[in-house]
Amino acid sequence: EPRHLTMEQSGNYSFSSTKRTISVNAGSAINALSLCQNNNKIVVAGRSLLKIYEIDSFNQIREAMNLHVGRKQGLNMSSSDVVWSPKEDNMIATAATNGAIVAWDLNAVGRNKQLVVLSDHRRTVTKISFHPKEPSRLLSGSQDCTMRMFDLRKKECTAIFHSKADGVRCVEFSPFHYFMFAASFDNGNVQIWDYRQKSTYLTQFLAHKGSVYTLNWHPDEEEKNKIATGGRDNMVKIWDVGSSNKQVCNIPTTTSVSAVRWRPTHRDQLATVSMMLDFSANVWDLRRRFVPFAYFEEHSDVTTGIVWKPNDPEVLFSCSKDGTLVMHAMREAIQPWLNTKTRGLDMGAGGRISLAGEHRSIHTRAQSPTGSGLPVKLPGIFSWKPGNFSMDSDWPGPAPASPTAKFSNSQFVYAAKNYILNGPEKELSFKQLCEHNASVMERIGDHNVAKVWLIIAEFYSNKILLKQKATHTSLPLQRTYSDAAPDRSNRAESENKRTATKSRTEDVHGSQNLFNGDPDSEVQSDEGRLIVEDYLTDIARGRHSEPDFYISDEDPNLWGYGTTSDAEFMSEQEWSLIGRVPIEAFEKKESSSPQSPSFTDPDSDPFIIGKKLVVKSSEWPLAFDDIRDDLTMKELRFGCFSFCICRYFHSHGDIQTAVCLLVAMSSYPTHINLPLDDAETEHWFSSYLDLLFKNQLFVQHAEVVKLSRLPNIRMLSASSTIHTNCKACQRRLPNTRSWSCDRRSDHDHHVNKPVLCFLCKSVVKTLYVYCQTCTFGGHLGCLQAWVERSKNRGIPTGRCSNHC
Amino acid sequence: MVSVINTIDTLHEDMIHDAQMDYYGLHLATCSSDRSIRIFEVKNGTQRLLSTLQGHDGPVWQIAWAHPKYGKMLASCSYDRKVIIWKEQDGQWIKLYEYADHDSSVNSVCWAPHELGLILACGSSDGSISVIKHHGENQWEATKINNAHTGGCNAVSWAPAVVPGSLIEPPSQNQQNTFVKKFCSAGCDNLIKVWSDKDGRWEEVEKLQAHTDWVRDCAWAPSIGLPCSKIASCSQDRQVIIWTSDESTGGQWTSKTLNEFDDVVWHVSWSLTGDILAVSGGNNKVSLWKEKLNGDWTIVSDIGKGQPGSTE
Questions:
Q1: Tell me, what's the ipTM?
Q2: Where does this protein have coiled-coil stretches (chain B) (predicted)?
């Protein structure tokens, strides 16, 4: 686990607190490097380079010796590899591209410190290795497909091992098996040899696709059978060569691996460098195979060699073709894990939450061939669906009806599917429609919205009835007066009630504020009140001067001016209009409030307003019986009432209710114009339509579009214009009626690729009918004939399962 | 109560870094350290592996679905410094475009609101942010913001394409013209920055400072047109902060700490309506938060330990 690894590393900070990355330039490209036994000197070798650097007690690197002296050393000096004897501090060996192996005695007197030149190999020596215990035993691997053992005391080759394979890429003595060494080859094989047995290898296995550039025995005695190999196939593989040659683990890297080195004391970590493209030195952890545990980016060209400081796993040396030798400090490494998010979270359509993380309880796949032998923490993915919040005791706050409406997708879908929006089509009265919709909401447990439907039903059913009656009278003016008449007759009653009303007015305004929503929407509520007042004025004026007093935003100025003669009446009217309905409505609320537990914590739920409106259904008819005949008043109040309801719902994200109310109301021919802005309702509609679309409720989508009275929304159904592209040149055709492209003159593509009917194979010039999924199509006539013949077996291709 | 409906064995070989559901919530894409992206069909509590997308050379950190009006399209970003845009054509997922202009691991991808066109923002560990715009016929144009976040950018999130306040004051014609593309980004410099499009160039318009450690994720809340913008951010410092910008206060961003958690907070995600915030912390725990009328945030639900199907 990454965090654990990070901790482990940070724990070692003090261990190497003085160390930091240091770089020296050797002057020319370096091919290889090696540390001496005491870890205080390092040798670097290149094409015309052989230098020894000393690391002093202050951790500075300085040049100690330059072995590349004189001009006549020629090709023997073009080193591809260099090793320092693990036993003798004065002994190093270099391998040259011409096949020579040179042993150097650093204690030799004079300028020429070459001990011996061994020219047995006929082609480039790729790798040499000292025996870990015997200082004079040197092993080499060459492109001439042989490995040779040298005795540096005898200064001769003591054994030849024929690989029977391909060019040797790497050889290395096992640090713990005394007689054993491993070799890797260009053909992808790895061989394990016992050098006492010169005829053939102990085992061989195919390790990589393509060359195996490098191998490294594990430095830990407990893991002495483990080998890491790296190859051209961008993989690092870990093998157990003890009994069977089993692949233990692999690390996929981004580029071919030219060197791999286990990190001392960190059993699961190793460093790699790449042969091309990637100049960085990467440190990997087998428990996180896919991203480096850390990396170093100091080099500006290919990094050719790496070596860990055996007694200090916090230090890594690397050399590069850019000529630099760098001592890296692990604590300065870049750790990509720190940038990594180990969780994925998404809240998608319908309130589903998906979370990606580790599933700790499963360990079963640890034995899989690709998995590591270490306990693997398997990734798991969970997705949660918020179910019914409301009835659960865990729910914070005693809200019996909770904000599920906008949250729970299933409820949304259910409501969308079951709502009846087009009453006239189903021959339902408005009241029946509302009752149906209320029952829908009751069924899914959203009592607030159900009540709202019932309230709307109460209000509007009379109005719509009235309107239907009024249509018989045919004269709007008369209708208006007849509407007003009961109101006038009720004026006496209003007068009587006025004193009582007055005292309650304060409450009313308070209630209205509540009604208009939460404190955030101050602007909204102000606006709402403003419109209410305008509305009152309008009504009052309309009574005298205008035939149709229904609020319409077409010409608000029409209502704005008038004589003040009926000011008194207006104010009176205002009292009664504002006063009566709300008081009656809210009185019920107040009386019922003690029964409702939700009132104890009004802040906990934004739906509180909705709740306050909700009273027991049995009480409603009672409340409205008093004013049943006072139609004008109701209508007035309803206008702003429904307006407020819609706004309220919308402001709390319940687009569905808001839009459905609007749609249902407007579905009747004598619809009520609400004091709503077109742009605003359009916004609601488009939001709702988007939600429907998201839930793939296309039928409901179409219905809402159809029932909408907003021109822009209705256009949606008309705007399913398909822009047709020319089949040949992929350009949009100039008009939808013609199938000919206006670039016909430029290309002769229409001659080559005309639009063909799939059935009769002739060019379609008129109406082209096609399936939207598979674009199969042709003449309308041809298709019709075909469909009749095939009796609904679908379109005549195998490509599309649609029965178009 | 929130319940686990599905636990999916993705068969990924290593850690999953992201799981995203498409627009309809029918497909789930997961990406993993094992360099692959897997696409599942999730239906009625069951899931079916549809495809495995191979193409990245390193762990895939994040994925993002494009709006379905552009077809089935997926963007992914990876440790291999590449961003790949995948598209399903005739049932096969193909690489539509590969963007490789970052100098380090790309940590985050986010599609702009579909109204703005096919635009992708990518945040990288090299500290830069790229905005890749589609010009039709697979022509993509990239704009790069260099040195956006010192130390690397961890997350990007687009502002919704709704003019704040459009619900209250329906946008007039000229207001719509002045709509500017915006996104926010979170970085290793403990900052959240808000970027705004100015004549095709991206300008830093806001620098939000309150976190005391790397900011892991930021998410701009979807808007229904209310006159305030919200950004949620979470950080290594274990805090989740809600940033609010209200037109009434002149667009100033104010911060409010949602909660201080016991562990690093990895991700924040808003519900479609922008009223519920999901927060993913340590121990595979997810909590849902909702704003109360008084502006405080209250926990709605807590998923994780002790729940059926949870990790323990």
A1: 0.77
A2: none
